[in-house]
Design a protein that fits this description.
Helices cover 45% and strands 17% of the residues. The chain has 266 residues and is an alpha/beta fold. The chain has a single domain, classed as Rossmann fold (3-Layer(aba) Sandwich). The chain has an eight-stranded mixed sheet with strand order 1-2-4-3-5-6-7-8, with helices on both faces.
């Protein structure tokens, strides 16, 4: 199947391969296609790879209300049940990492292993509230989703990758993706992210956890990943040299190497 219904919302998901299941959760303003390089590698290694589009993104349905990471986590946990799975490994980046953390805290038995990258403990700080308000203002302008994407591209992937042939290919694909986005969906998400604060619940996470951080990530800086690591029992932390925010794309080989090593460890 291709679509899943939950609470009157329609989700698209990609499901390929067999073996140990892994759920990949993408970031804000993106789609599951951002995980292409991980899907290929994980499927090659014998995993079943499940890649949903978050609500209001890609081929999933629209967001009709303010959407929070915790509510989205509830829907992804329901997707596991829909697929007949008791548990899976979860990999999430940025907003996807926030959702994965919510799932790991609320549904510990559903998470075998947890990998989060370039993500956050909380958005309930004045600088991040201002950031989200700035995003809302930018998205609300004509062609706002495209303009925001263009202004953030180098910050997301780093200047070196942005200037490379691979960077241009990704830029073209994501530019078209941004042009198709409905601003109202992203505004609902920005409003919902204002409520995100899992900092006091991180101790509830029991799954073995790997935290990946980009060395030059200005959006989720190194002290954020360190605080996450300190708050989650037995978490490992790895800094990807030269990596910006979307390190699964710009530093795919390094991201995959750390991911596979962690998933194989007992």
């Amino acid at each position: 199947m291709t679509f899943f219904e939950h609470d009157n919302d329609r989700y698209y998901y990609f499901d390929a391969g067999a073996g140990t299941p892994i759920v990949l959760l993408h970031g804000f303003g993106n789609t599951g296609r951002a995980w292409t390089q991980q899907v290929v590698e994980l499927k090659r290694l014998g995993h079943r790879v499940i890649v949903p589009d978050l609500l209001g993104h890609g081929a999933s349905g629209p967001v009709r209300r303010v959407m929070t990471a915790r509510e989205q986590g509830k829907a992804i946990a329901a997707l596991l049940q829909f697929l007949g799975l008791e548990s899976a490994a979860f990999i999430g980046l940025s907003l996807g990492g926030m959702i994965a953390l919510e799932i790991a805290a609320d549904y510990p038995k559903a998470v075998d292993k947890l990998i989060v990258a370039a993500t956050f403990r909380t958005m309930a700080t004045l600088p991040r509230q201002r950031m989200l308000n700035a995003w809302i203002e930018a998205i609300s302008q004509p062609d706002g989703c495209v303009k925001r994407f263009k202004s953030n591209w180098a910050e997301l992937v780093g200047n070196a990758f942005a200037d490379s042939p691979a960077g241009l290919a990704w830029y073209q694909a994501w530019h078209a993706q941004a042009a198709l986005q409905e601003p109202r969906n992203h505004i609902h998400w920005c409003e919902g992210m204002k409520f995100y604060d899992i900092s006091q619940r991180l101790g509830q996470i029991t799954a073995p956890t790997l935290i990946l951080a980009g060395e030059t990530d200005a959006m989720s800086p190194l002290d954020e990943s360190q605080a996450l690591s300190d708050a989650i029992n037995s978490a490992e932390r790895v800094v990807v040299a030269g990596g910006g925010h979307v390190i699964n794309v710009s530093c795919a080989a390094e991201f995959n190497r750390h991911t596979v090593h962690f998933l194989r460890a007992k």
